[in-house]
């Protein structure tokens, strides 16, 4: 079975956006008059929870559990998350955020080689649209045949649900795909769905273990800016190209008659 599609996570994979999410959460806390402040160390811990609203609920449960008894607790969390996403869009509009190294090149190459592309993310559709609206190179949005965003499924990564939903939309088996992720929970989600995953780490996840990942890289690399292999095999390559995708895919599914 040949490699037919490449699935890209968004936050941390297409762009280094988690630091902007963190700043947006803190802006929303100020707007709502709550005394919370998520510093980098705390946010790194909270990144284990997929989904911004789920992350807020998790934080309240451990930091101020009594708040959960508020009659309007759900509205409070939803309002906070909405305010955070508004702040996120404002931050993205004012910062010149670029796609991560190698992303635009790899997306174009995949298209030229006839590989299908999809997005699989825990973030909201609204935030996906915001990213493509403001990021340099946002024109690559049209390359993605399916956008599997956090609004499509109830359970966020590490649940495999968004990968299963996206495979269904593509009409492909997991063995025909390869995924790129930036967090251990993202790799877990992909692997649970039966899809081989490559991790490109961020400043939040560079020291994490990525059990199940085919390879862990600093980023996708460029010809003049090679990636760093943190673990796994890159078959002597220095940046992710179609040949390397196919080598990873073949290595992940040696049992398949890969022609
Ligand atoms: C990243 C997430 C998201 C973002 C915050 O998803 O887990 O929750 O951190 O965005 P992925 P929202 O790594 O799958 O792209 O507040 O919109 O969830």
Word description of this protein:
The protein has two domains: 5-16 and 99-252, Rossmann fold (3-Layer(aba) Sandwich); 18-94, Orthogonal Bundle (DNA polymerase, domain 1). Helices cover 41% and strands 11% of the residues. The chain is globular, with a radius of gyration of 18 Å. Strand 2 (116-120), helix 6 (125-134) and strand 3 (146-148) form a beta-alpha-beta unit. The longest helix has 22 residues, at 73-94. Helix 1 crosses helix 4, helix 3 packs across helix 4 and helix 4 (73-94) packs parallel to helix 6. It has a seven-stranded mixed beta sheet. It has 259 residues and is an alpha/beta fold. The structure holds xylulose-1,5-bisphosphate.
CATH architecture of the largest domain: 3-Layer(aba) Sandwich
CATH class of the largest domain: Alpha Beta
CATH level 3 topology of the largest domain: Rossmann fold
Shape: globular
Number of domains: 2
Write out the strand line-up for the largest beta sheet, numbering strands in chain order.
3-2-1-4-5-6-7
Which sequence of SSEs, written as H and E, runs from N to C? EHHHHHEHEHEHEEEH
DSSP summary: helix tally: 9
Global structural class: alpha/beta
Compute the separation of the termini in Å. Answer: 7 Å
User: Beta fraction of the residues?
Assistant: 5-15%
Q: Tell me about the biggest sheet?
A: 7 strands, mixed
Tell me roughly what share of residues is in helical segments.
Answer: 40-55%
CATH superfamily caption of the largest domain: HAD superfamily/HAD-like
The strand count comes to 7
Give every kind of bound small molecule, once each. Answer: xylulose-1,5-bisphosphate
pLDDT averaged residue by residue: 96
Low-confidence stretches: none
Rounded Rg:
18 Å
